[in-house]
Amino acid sequence: MADIFANVETWLAAMGVWAYVVAPLVMAAVSILPVPAEAPAMVNGMLFGAVVGSLITWLGAMAGAWISYEIARSWGRSLARRMVRQESLERLDNAADQAGWWGLLALRFVPVVAFTALNWGAGLCDVPRRRFLWTTALGIAPGVVLFTTSGVGLSAIWRRSPPVAAAFVLGAVVLAVWWERRRRATRTAAS
User: Fold this and answer.
1) CA spacing 20 to 30 A to 18: which of 27, 57, 84, 140?
2) Structural domain total, the chain
3) The predicted structure's pLDDT at residue 3
4) What angle do CA 129, 124, 60 make, to 5 degrees?
5) SS3 84
6) Contacts from 65-70 at CB under 8 Å and sequence distance 24+?
7) What stretches in the chain show pLDDT beneath 70?
């Protein structure tokens, strides 16, 4: 585990200025796919510090969220019509309309609501673009700062004691996997 972070850090450091391009692209890709984004955010904190790392993480997450939203908005509805009854889609649209901006913003703070699912769902439900963008920008900021600055602290621990840092990272990954499985089990039980 220690080698992985050392290699990533060395690889990005060797990229020089390009690391400032690659890091947000990685964050955007992670934001589009249904995978946890905490690890790349922490790496951004380790490599770029709290302020620049948070900005890179936030920009990448915003780009990925917007791309997901636009894809769902452009092609998702026609696909959904083939798979789901029209009444179900109308109920979903009504729920999104009734929730308004406040509901969309509040969902960004609920840990069991997947970031990626909310992005795709907002595009599918035709949430207005401006509402989606500003609620996402505001709603993800606390998590971005939390996870990115965790990476800054991890970097300090890493330099003093790589085994402790590796244990912390491993624990965070195990916790993220456990949380995701619990969330899926809860969602399946509710269905």
Assistant:
1) 140
2) 1
3) 56
4) 55
5) coil
6) 65/31, 65/115, 65/119, 65/136, 65/140, 66/133, 66/136, 67/28, 67/31, 67/32, 68/31, 68/32, 68/116, 68/119, 68/120, 68/123, 69/119, 69/120, 69/122, 69/123, 69/127, 69/129, 69/132, 70/123
7) 1-9, 12, 89, 112, 154-170, 172-173, 190-191
